[in-house]
Amino acid sequence: MFLGSHSINMDAKGRVAIPARVRELLSSICGGQIVITAHTQERCLLIYPRPQWEEIMPKINALPTFNKAAQRTKRLLIGYANESEMDGNGRILLSQTLRDYAGLEKKLMLVGQGKNMELWSEEAWTAWLDDGDDGELPDEMMSLSL
Fold first, then answer.
1. CATH number for the 5-131 domain, one of 3.40.1550.20, 3.30.1370.10, 3.40.50.10780, 3.30.365.10?
2. What is the pLDDT of residue 26?
3. N or C, which end of the chain has less CB nearby within 10 Å?
């Protein structure tokens, strides 16, 4: 599972060094093969180990084409999807299109989400934390006890 958050940097070529603990997990799960795509509700990126992406891809493809919200989700997830592989130094290359979508510059936050990760600009992540407006809680969370 991908847990925790990591402050990381992106170089001028769009390369991001994955933290050692996450790198080891990615190597063991998928040999460093990942899919990076746009988040559908936030201006950040989603990073999936390739096997996880292959599980959800049929579900994305099955979304109804005549539903605008479903079509938008499909366009973002598939349209921005970029296959990548960690290099020998544990770095991944982010395309300019993905960097532009998420507003990524030098300082980034890599945030574990269990089966996948999110990649945020540090500025957007801090703004999200400070916002505090999570909207209405879904029914599933009303019975959750931590």
1. 3.40.1550.20
2. 96
3. C
